Amino acid sequence: MNFEQRFTQQQKQVQKLAMTQQLQQSIQMLQFNVEELTSFLEQRALENPLIEVSVDRDDTADLDLYRSKPSSISRDDDQENNYMNQVPDNKISLFEYLLEQVHMMRETYLRELMLFLLEYIDKNGYLNITLEEAGAITNATEIQLLDALTLLQQLDPAGVGARDLRECLMLQVERDDLAPNMAYLILEERFEEFAEKKWKKIAKDFDITLSEIQEVWDFVQTLTPAPGAIYEGMPEQYIKPDIVVRVEENKLKVLSAKTGLPVLHFQNDYYQEMQQFKEKDVQKFMKEKFSEYEWLKRSVAQRGETIVKVGTAIVSAQKDFFLKPNHPIKPLTLKEIAEELLIHESTVSRSVNGKYLETSFGIFELKTFFTSALVSSNNESGEDASGADVKRKLTDFVKNEDKAKPLSDQKIVEMLAEEGIEVSRRTIAKYRDALNIPSSTKRKRF
């Protein structure tokens, strides 16, 4: 058997994208939110003497910074049980706050035990050591430790030093003059039944009405399960939108947000001074740093243009959300925006993740405008229903339901079907959990 080996020459043209370090960093910059971008540029400025980074905070009339969380597509304006509205305006920790109170007491052995127990108070205000364990460490008797714990539980905030949720709520009820008469007793003796809304037996045993138990339930909802959390000195968080949407004469206008965005400045005086040096190493260094400045400037500008371009396409696709009072949101995918702009889906994904859009009625993350269609509806428009539409309808149904006979998940499925929207009971349960809406049995009121 003969083997013959031949060598030939061929020309082959191949298109190949080389992922240089700068290209990788440009892609990474697109994915950065405002805070991450600022931090990245400031780090570069430390390594490059030609770069200075500033943050534009002058144009406050054009853009308001919203604290805490962004607005949600399905908003809940009920603030009655928003405990975080009571956050004290200070940076003191719970431990420091309790320590100050204990130090105001006269020095006794119980005070020493209180200081010991303070070391075992967690960030939510709960005691995470048993009295038996504390006794083994301190050699104190159980009665002494119980007396020290009782004194500790009388400190502010109410509920601190509790060993479980039941005791935490009881401590708060005990110190509240507005608490219903039966609240403490029900929590003490029938906590599990009360929490599971097995109220008929409680009403019979205590010879009270279901309405009285409902009153206790409503009061307990105003208490906090984590009394120490508000003293944890949470850092202030600000959302810095990347784009702003304005409505002018029923037309939408998309602008790039300037306030809060990092701005690159070229240190021209230093550059001109260093140009006087003719050493090759100095000239090479300055050339490299100047090139880096030019690249960063282009990359930041390109990032901003891409986000505005993607944001404009999203606003155009969801124009009813910005123009109509009920803010409906239509099904929209990354692929649709990518095809419209002739860019890759991954570019759209990087452009929307962690990026925010400001309107006159709130701030929204760009990715929240993407939602897939659930089913084809039978309405006249023939448009698909989105998950946001179903969530909004679900919220409206629950808001307007008869609280004595709340709607079950299956009943909500049937009501949606009457409107031409077919979803499963499991989907409704999932959306209900996402909206923090309790089940029908827990929503029932007497």
Automatic annotation (TrEMBL):
PANTHER family in the cross-refs: RNA POLYMERASE SIGMA-54 FACTOR (PTHR32248)
Species this chain originates from: Isobaculum melis
Entry's family note: Belongs to the sigma-54 factor family.
Keyword Magnesium: no
Domain RNA polymerase sigma factor 54 DNA-binding: 284-445
Species lineage: Bacteria, Bacillati, Bacillota, Bacilli, Lactobacillales
Gene Ontology CC annotations of this record: DNA-directed RNA polymerase complex
Gene3D superfamilies linked: Homeodomain-like, RNA polymerase sigma-54 factor, core-binding domain
Entry's Gene Ontology molecular function annotations: DNA binding; DNA-binding transcription activator activity; nucleotidyltransferase activity; sigma factor activity
InterPro entries assigned to the protein according to its UniProt record, in alphabetical order: RNA_pol_sigma_54, RNA_pol_sigma_54_core-bd, RNA_pol_sigma_54_DNA-bd, RpoN_core-bd_sf
Entry's Gene Ontology BP terms: DNA-templated transcription initiation
Domain RNA polymerase sigma factor 54 core-binding: 85-270
Lineage: superkingdom: Bacteria
Protein name (database record): RNA polymerase, sigma 54 subunit, RpoN/SigL
Keywords, comma-separated and alphabetical: DNA-binding, DNA-directed RNA polymerase, Nucleotidyltransferase, Sigma factor, Transcription, Transcription regulation, Transferase
Nucleotidyltransferase found in the keyword field: yes
